[in-house]
Amino acid sequence: MSTPWLGTPENEPEGGGTTGTLVVCFAPTGAHGSTFAGWRGRLPGDTALALVTPPGRGTRIDEEPVVDMAVYADAVAAEVRAARGGRRLVLIGVSLGALLAYETCGRLLDAGVPVARLCAVAGQCPGDFHGDGDEVTVEDARAFVAGTGLTDPELLADPEFEEVLLPPVIADLRLCGRYDGGRTPVPDVELRAVWATDDPHVPEVTVRRWADWTRGTCTFRSVEGGHYAHQENPDAVISACLDGLVDTRPSRRSVLGAGATAVAGTLLGLGAAAAAPRASAAARTAGAAAFDGDPTDPVELAVAMIRQDTSNPGDGALTEPYARMLQDIFRAAGVATEIVPTPKEGNVHFFARVPASGTAREKPLVLLGHSDVVPAIGDAWTTDPFAGAIKDGKLYGRGALDMKGVNAAFVAALLRHVREGATFDRDIVFWSDCDEEQGPYGVRWFLVEHPDRVEAGAVITEGGWVLDQRDGTTPMIASLTCNDKRSLLLRLETSSYATHTSKPFTGQAVIRLGEVLEQLGDWRAHIRPNALSLRYFAELAGATTDRRLAEALRQMLAARGEQERDRAGEAVIRLSGTPELHNAMLRTTLAFTAARSGYYPSIVPGTATAEFRAAFLPGADDPGRIVAELRSLIGNRATLTVVGNPGESEEQVLDRLRGYLATPDSTHDTDVFRAWQAAVRRTHPGARATACQFEAVTSAVPFREQNIPVYGMYPFTVDRDMLKRMHGTDEHIGVEALRRGTDTVYHLLAGLRTGT
User: Could you give the CA distance from residue 606 to residue 242 in angstroms, rounded to a whole number?
Assistant: First the structure.
């Protein structure tokens, strides 16, 4: 069969499947991968989750079920071998899945693939099966479903539901009936056997028989719950299976990772996970303006900045204590400063200005870094997000990457010049703006309210990335972004009717929403790089030492037709060390951000909604055409609405977005751009320094609309894991990378000094 049995591993650690642990899960009778939906986001941070979906269920509902254990295990083992890479391998099976995991384990070991641990959860051992029967009727399957509590009896009474549920149950019961566990050689593997304390079907005495089915060590664990404890008590089962094998740090959660079949419990039943205990915002900011470190040390500065909790809940942050700290730092260096309040109390803009030597030959260069950060709530961190902890050469904290690390590089580099007594051919202005993440009083508000306060000749803010070759140490490419993507907020709504939970029905609003979200999640726009992206990827083709990636890049750049370009572009993304980044630079993307439904525990809700953002490359897809394509895709199963400002029509929103997308790229024919290129060549030897398209939106837009060149940089080297944690859990940057990036900013500014 060409359809994969093994889903693409989720929560992939850095390294593209070459490091960490791969956990492969086998579902109980009649089920498939979605039964482990509650495990998403709960595994350790270096652990990927791969779910087995056999024919006849889930996404493979139209295929003929497999009723032969050998066929089943052979197919899964082959895909596990391909997916494993160099990772430690753990197989976990629940109920019938324990037998499937056991048989797959034997095949992997025979093929020379090491298995770190085999886990049997609530499962009978192979010795309980003798292959002496496979006659299974519909009544047998119905009795099994009712007896094990696989689903609600009232749902089972629904003929449409029974038609979907019973065939895979019948297939699995036949598979068990034909299975003779005594035919398989006992493997030499560490085995962990787990029973649930309230399981009436597979009690402790049954689970303990697994001791005879390994030549390795066998240990036992119990968890609270019934036969399906892996769903009822996922944290306990995960711990029981992985205890002593890996560090059980919590990982980032994937909100929309559950898929359609688990939307009700995972997607729309979202509960905010408790963050690590930490001091209140008031306690962290009280007296925190003092900074007694070295202001030219970017690491000390970044730690102090992170410890200022400038979380923006959506309507602006408390940024004044942060600004006061910056004011003290610059004043101590003899640099003039100004704090400009906004209508929101405590939410301010901060400026520091190093004046030009004599008559300025150019308008000021503005180093623009926002002070606010997104909240650190929801998923649990392994460190206090506002402590600025340094571990294993990495600085952790909310804003470490976005963008207090950049701010620290700006400030430290500028003050290093000030300490040296340097003079510049123009004013150098450091501007810490507020309301960049959200809120009404950001850069656009400031430029309207104070039009003559900042007359910028050029602006440098957050944007392009520095990437290494696959060895993680050799500089490959550095980019300075010259335009931003722009996004459109879209809302989905499904409806049915509200009723008592005792009477669920086919077509519930929550399930419909999940199905539509799953379809939209699989949607891909065509590969349509714009001029800036083409420039970047042409440079990347010459920079990378990965021959396969270079060839895919050349094919994409030379493609003449849409189909050829899509095929080559997908290869580029697949081969990239930062696939999420490069995917966003090549096409329109969808990012799902919120889902809501339900208002009372005994009511099946009549409506369910979700919101997502479509992000567009300037010069590529038309937003109206994409909206029409998405509506055609989902048909009448959901209503898709374009969300704009109060009173705006859909066409007005789309026209406004088209205007933003028509903003010209910033020219790279400036002394600032050339100074950056020279700085990169000095601090990251061998790296190509190129103009680029940014994959997000920044505070740069209002300047670009005035035809002021704006460039974006994250001057330090990043990797895939670091990029994935931007706005996420355990956000961090490399300490030494921050120091080198600060050197880049220093040498850029050195190119604007007088007398040099």
Answer: 40
> What is the C-alpha separation between 47 and 45, in angstroms, rounded?
6
Nearest to 580 by CA among 2, 14, 25: 14
CB 637 within 8 A of CB 494: yes
In 85-200, which ranges are continuous DSSP H helix? 96-110, 138-148, 153-156, 159-178
Q: What is the β-pairing status of strands 21-26 and 47-51?
A: parallel
In degrees and rounded to multiples of 5, residue 463 shows phi and psi of: 170, -110
Would you give the distance in Å from CA 168 to the centre of its chain? 33
3-class SS string, 658-700: HHHHCCCCCCCCCHHHHHHHHHHHHHCCCCEEEEECCCCCCCC
Residue 556 tokens read as: 């994409």
CB 466 within 8 A of CB 717: yes
Going by pLDDT thresholds of 50, 70 and 90, the confidence category of residue 277 is: very low
pLDDT in tens, 636-645: 999 999 999 8
Contact 90, 108 (CB under 8 A): no
Residue with tokens 């037998």: 99
Rounded distance between C-alpha atoms, residue 44 and residue 250, angstroms: 5
pTM, to two decimals: 0.64
**What residue type is 573 in one-letter code?**
I
Question: If DSSP codes are grouped into helix, strand and coil, which group holds residue 236?
Answer: helix
What is the enclosing helix (H) or strand (E) of 711? strand 710-717
Per-residue pLDDT tens digits for 595-633: 999 888 889 999 999 999 999 999 999 999 999 999 999
> Could you check whether the bond before residue 403 is cis, i.e. omega within 30 degrees of 0?
yes
Residue whose tokens read 């940089």: 713
Q: Which residues contact 345 (CB under 8 A, 6 or more apart)?
A: none
The Cβ of residue 203 has, within 10 Å, a number of other Cβ atoms equal to 14
| Strand-pair category, 458-468 with 603-604 | unpaired
What pLDDT sits at residue 158? 53
Smallest CA-to-CA distance from 661 within 617, 615, 708, 710 is with 617
Tokens of 350: 């901060």
Pairwise CA distance, residues 444 & 441, whole Å: 7
Extended beta strands in 529-653, E state: 589-597, 603-604, 607-616, 639-643
